[in-house]
Amino acid sequence: MSIELSPIVAATYVRRYLEEMSGWIVVVERFTPDRRTMSFQPDALEAIGMMRYITETSNRLNHRFVLQGRAEAMKMAGVSDLKKLHWHKLTRDGHANAAARHVLLALLTHYPRDYANLMDELQSL
Asked: Does residue 1 fall inside a structural domain?
């Protein structure tokens, strides 16, 4: 699932999912502010911290918190691929589509067989 929400609302959703089932992978895009960062973005840092905390303190077991790089995720699929998968969303800044790419990278990394099956399905579309 990829959606674009405020950090607090996103944390509420993630906590709810983690408390209902075991074995989730919470994937977050790594954000490191540096001189090239256009503006101070406390929401990004706060959201990463909240997601890590929620994942690691969940009452359920077997959750994993994973940081991924933006560049690696962007290589996973183009707009046409996301549209074929029905994962493309028109948003103001494209964060939901970036999240979908992170899901694909997580599948490739943690569930390669499921990723291969999805890619086979994509090729047949």
From this structure: no
**Domain membership of residue 87 as a residue range:** 7-124
Of 31, 20, 26, the residue nearest 54 (C-alpha): 26
Q: How confident is the model at residue 125 (pLDDT cuts 50, 70, 90)?
A: confident
Hey, what are 48's tokens?
């990463």
Token pair belonging to 123: 């090729």
Annotate 103-123 with b (16+ C-beta within 10 A) or e (fewer). bbbbbbeeeeeebeebbeeee
Q: What ranges make up the beta strands (E) of 25-125?
A: 25-29, 64-68
d(CA 57, CA 51): 10
Please indicate, yes or no, if residue 52 is contained in any of the structural domains: yes
Domain count, the chain: 1
pLDDT attached to residue 108? 95
